[in-house]
Amino acid sequence: MTEILRVENLKKSYDGFLAVNGVSFSVEQGELKALIGPNGAGKSTCFNMLMGQLKPTEGDVWFDGEKITGKLPREVWRRGVGRTFQITGTYQSMTVIENVQMALMSHHGKLFSIQPRAWKLYREEAFEFLETVSMQDQADRPCSILAYGDLKRLELAIALTHRPRLLLMDEPTAGMAPSARVELMQLVADIVRDQGVSVLFTEHDMDVVFAHAHHIMVLNRGELIADGNATEVRNNPQVQEVYLGGGTLFKEAEDA
Ligand code: ADP
Ligand code: MG
Fold this sequence. Notes:
Structural class: alpha/beta
Distance between the termini: 29 Å
Strand content: 15-25%
Largest sheet: 6 strands, mixed
CATH superfamily of the largest domain: P-loop containing nucleotide triphosphate hydrolases
Helix content: 25-40%
CATH topology of the largest domain: Rossmann fold
Bound molecules: adenosine-5'-diphosphate, magnesium ion
Order of helices and strands: EEEHEEHEHHHEHEHEEHHH
Number of domains: 2
Number of helices: 10
CATH architecture of the largest domain: 3-Layer(aba) Sandwich
Radius of gyration: 19 Å
Number of strands: 10
């Protein structure tokens, strides 16, 4: 397998408080990997450093063999690292397919050619992306009337228009009903399998994590305490300690 992302000794300090404290890991091409941990563990801080939103205090990030530490978000994105946002970033006044067409215009460097005719541009290509997320039936609906779960799928289609090799998803299923969460992550898992894209995601719902992730990392107080497959993580004493009393981490997984 080819390593697509490598993180070495990543640290982020806020006035001496180490939100992320010496994190090292890698993600392989075609891997669906979860980063879990209690609230405040440092997951979002990690993600923001990978994307270039935050400068690490220490450590390095390599993408596809190239050091990208300290590069701007746009430069990281151009190299093939995409992300979906926790708050959906669609244009409410446009239709579903128009949102995808907008993203494609941006991808093809045509953002400034907006004119009535522009809405013929990339319509077919946009339709294909909607098919990928099973949204083709909703192509011409305004985004303002979409159900929340459908907005999330649209957001995923938009992220895919840039043909990322690695997709970062910070709590992609936040605010969704349990069944919709499983469905969305099933879709992501299908895309990983069919397109060979890598996905790193954070998630609170352990059913979703254990059902779909190839590998799971556990972050606690800024430090990585586990990195392995479901069985390895489940049997890790440090992980059990962190989640002890917290309730549901292993229940469903053990029942299965
Ligand atoms: P998670 O995403 O795992 O819930 P975060 O990465 O958001 O955790 O936060 C990790 C820790 O860093 C928390 O204790 C949080 O309060 C702290 N933190 C995050 N951003 C800042 C900031 N800009 N200034 C100071 N502390 C921060
Ligand atoms: Mg977070």
